[in-house]
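Q&A FORM
Asked by: J.P.
Topic: structure of RMA1-like protein

PROVIDED:
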Amino acid sequence: MVDVMSAEQTFPRAIRLLKCAGGYMSSLKIIHIAGTNGKETVSTFLTSILQGTEPQRQQVLVGRYTTSFLLNDREAISVNNESISLKEYSEIANSLIKLDESLNLQCNTIELLTSIAFVYFAKKCCQWCIIETGLGGKWDPANLIPRQNKICCAITNVGISDEKLLCDALSLITYEYSKKKVHTIPFAVLDGSNDEFVRNAISRKCSNVGCKLHITDPSLDNCSVRTDSWGTLEIRQVPYNEEDQIFNLRVAIAVLDFLKKEGKVCISKGQLSKGLISVDWPKSLHQLDYCYEANRGKRIALLLDNANNAKAAQNLASYLRTKYGDTPLTFVVAITMGKKLPPLLDPLIRTQDHVIVTRFGSVVGMPWIQSFEPMQLFTFIKDRYTKNIDIQPDLHSVWTFLEANRLQTMAPVIVCGSLYLCKELLYQHNCHLRV
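REPLIED BY: S.T.
REPLY: Here is the structure written out as tokens.
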């Protein structure tokens, strides 16, 4: 039984804040992307195709709000892949914070960040807004969006067969925006590679509430994508060069196929192909002089790269081989549960490398995201790649271990495997600098 609560019950502060700020959501057309794995890829596909190619990209504005930001909150909010400027971010944030204080609402960080995104998209007059917020169920900030603004929802691979995640997925389809209004999403796309019980449960839910559901092809036999609008698309090379990405591509194209049939977009087959070719993937390779002990100001030079998909791992490996050749490297690794390990680790780790496996902590607002148990990673890496491997229970203990074993000076240290590991490290770095 799905516990349905209204947005007014779960987000009363943010709803009131936005209403008092001027009701900025009324003009927005929202595509909601949810799931455990693949959200960022689907969002990136959609952003690239919807904004079109030059010179159309100057005319069609696509806003994007994502949980997958690394360095700062501003990375979460972008229009046509350009993050909100510091000036615009500060102006909107200061205005909302003052309003929040005057109303004594005490909105939390996620509520404020989501509100900043909606205000910014409305002020920029975005034609489309892609809200990527995970499977948050009734606690998902996307539930702030009124029904008339939410055009469709796409659910990528849930990753873990968990009853809580399934309930959250179901609550995305039907939810209450207010105590008197129960809303059903008009159209939903589900990644066909999900477990059978997930597919069946979501199919039943959509059938019961009148939501049209499209389940994508789960086959890996070919890279074709069947559509009503453009016929069968033969994808010669799947972006990201990872076979599983065909699933994410099918989800994104199914959303566009729906929008095309509804007359909400005008995209030709040629424009679709050009949009895929011109996909702008997120940047990586962050150099950081990490402050790991505040009181003594101890620092270590790190290379941060979340490398949480096959293509990103290949790009990181290419950079490391070019820069360091056969030099033994030290990796600090944590990986999000549900990810396939070989595509992430095969390109990176060699016999001569040293690996320290650890875990990231709980992710605020997203309790369904968990880290692989370090012992699981330890066994997999030791059996497959290198015997030079150690376990540390958390990030704090990693740096003590590196210092004690002089590993921070013997070889470059690369932190990779998960966006959430990198975000936690950056948070600790900033906290140490403020002491």
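FOLLOW-UP: The CA atoms of residues 400 and 406 lie 10 Å apart.
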